[in-house]
Write a structure and sequence with these properties.
Elements: H1 5-22, H2 50-54, H3 68-71, E1 82-90, E2 96-105, E3 111-120, E4 124-127, E5 133-138, E6 141-153, E7 156-168, E8 172-183, E9 192-202, E10 204-207, E11 210-213, E12 217-225, E13 230-239, E14 245-255, E15 260-268, E16 281-289, E17 292-300, E18 306-316
Antiparallel strand pairs: 1-2, 1-18, 2-3, 3-6, 4-5, 6-7, 7-8, 8-9, 9-12, 10-11, 12-13, 13-14, 14-15, 15-16, 16-17, 17-18
């Protein structure tokens, strides 16, 4: 979609204006960096897909595939055809995290999507009030299921997701929450898109007599295409339980006959100052063959060790989403602007 220059700049200014108004409201809404990590269901922050992880989680204005169920439901409005992904993350110790996503377009009726997050923590010995092991053990499990819907309205992708969250620690709790997101039309000759997202809006998880709030987050994002090979993403986050932080990342595409590769580099300041050593930096690699994409991300966490993520994704039918994986886009076609990208091979 191409728009006039005046309209483009109006769109560009609207999203920062929204964030400029919302951020000062943090203090009135109970958003405080002193409450760092106090929200429940921290696993909801673990993301979806190795591609996003390799780009520093700067993905809210990039996603137009099944990962949009997590990153920005509005991105589903630009999806054509069917998209799916499965992610496995090897974290620390016995922590393992999985994400399963699926989305399907129904033409003018919009796009529906499903996302499932699952975190297992292995077996943890139980202790009594004095700190001695009782001989019993618990196996904490946390998961969330999201159902999303989006469609285009006036060139914007507008979407929302309803989320069911369940956590089993020594006790079990559940909660309902919602995400909502907007993704702008392609601006500046199909080079720029902007996004605004609200994540995990809802009540909290109640264990016994106490209720812990969910990790509510407000996000403003952008993605800029320097060429059909290089894209840059930036997300600024305003969470309930932390200071404002940002994620930035880039992806560079290399094309060869029949197979294409994506090289990624990112940085996320969420853990800055909390962990010694190298942290926040991420790298990634993607291999694309026809409609299948295999992605890997490597993320160091200082003395805690390294996190590895691997994803297998597919895209069938319709036109390639923006920014299209290398093999789904013909040379010379734009990286941004899903409606203008040629059909996949």
């Amino acid at each position: 979609m191409k728009t006039g220059k005046l309209v483009d700049w109006r769109y560009v200014l609207v999203f920062p204006a929204i964030f400029a108004v919302i951020c000062p409201l943090r203090s009135f809404a109970g958003f405080d960096a002193g409450d760092k990590g106090t929200s429940a269901a921290q696993f909801l922050k673990l993301g979806a897909g190795a591609r996003a992880a390799g780009m520093g989680e700067a993905y809210s204005a990039v996603c137009a595939d099944s990962g949009a169920v997590y990153w920005n439901p509005g991105g589903l409005g630009f999806l054509n055809g069917v998209s799916g992904t499965f992610t496995h993350a090897d974290l620390f110790g016995e922590l393992n995290y999985e994400y399963l996503g699926y989305a399907q377009s129904f033409g003018n009726a919009g796009t529906a999507g499903l996302g499932v997050q699952y975190l297992s923590s292995g077996r943890i010995p139980e202790t009594d009030a004095a700190g001695f092991e009782t001989g019993a053990a618990m196996a904490p499990v946390q998961y969330a299921v999201s159902l999303a819907y989006a469609r285009k309205v006036g060139g914007f992708g507008i979407g929302a997701a309803a989320k069911y969250i369940r956590s089993r620690l020594s006790a079990t709790a559940s909660a309902l929450a919602a995400d909502a997101g907007v993704l702008s039309p392609a601006l500046m000759d199909n080079k720029l898109r902007l996004a605004f997202v609200v994540q995990n809006a809802g009540g909290g998880l109640k264990y016994g007599q106490s209720t812990d709030p969910l990790p509510l987050n407000l996000k403003l994002g952008g993605a800029f295409s320097f060429s059909d090979k290089l894209i840059f993403g930036l997300d600024v986050n305003s969470p309930r339980d932390n200071r404002i932080y940002a994620g930035a990342g880039a992806e560079y595409l290399l094309r060869y006959s029949g197979v294409s590769f994506a090289l990624r580099l990112g940085y996320n300041s969420r853990t800055s100052g909390d962990i010694d050593g190298m942290t926040g930096v991420s790298t990634g690699l993607g291999v694309v063959f026809h409609d299948m994409v295999l992605d890997y991300a490597f993320i160091p966490f200082g003395p805690l060790g390294f996190a590895h993520r691997i994803s297998l994704s597919f895209k069938l039918g319709g036109k390639a989403p923006f920014p299209a994986p290398a093999a789904l886009r013909k040379p010379g076609s734009p990286v941004l602007g899903g409606a203008d990208v040629q059909k996949s091979r």
